[in-house]
Design brief:
Blueprint (H helix, E strand, L loop, with lengths): L7 E6 L8 E4 L5 E4 L2 H15 L6 E6 L5 E3 L7
Parallel strand pairs: 1-4
Antiparallel strand pairs: 1-2, 2-3, 4-5
């Protein structure tokens, strides 16, 4: 299967029941834990900027409280 057209995806998981940590999963499966949503989002967006130069799109998806997914817009600092 050719993955060249598929974007890299970075996932931000909402804390599970009785948990207090946000999980960020990067392409390749590396997991990072954060105590707040803001830190998780900041890390995910900065990681997306670092991966962007690899000739593939990067999407940052954040899990919602209801279990759905939303794509976070990326803001460029130009």
């Amino acid at each position: 299967m050719n993955d060249a057209g598929r974007p890299f995806r970075i996932f931000i998981f909402y804390p599970g029941m009785n948990e207090r940590v946000w999980r960020v999963v990067l392409p390749g499966g590396a997991k990072h834990l954060f105590p707040t949503e803001g830190r998780a989002v900041e890390f995910a967006l900065s990681s997306a900027s670092a991966v962007t130069g690899q000739m593939r799109r990067v999407e940052v998806l954040k899990e919602t409280l209801s279990g759905g997914w939303m794509v976070l817009p990326r803001v460029s600092a130009t």
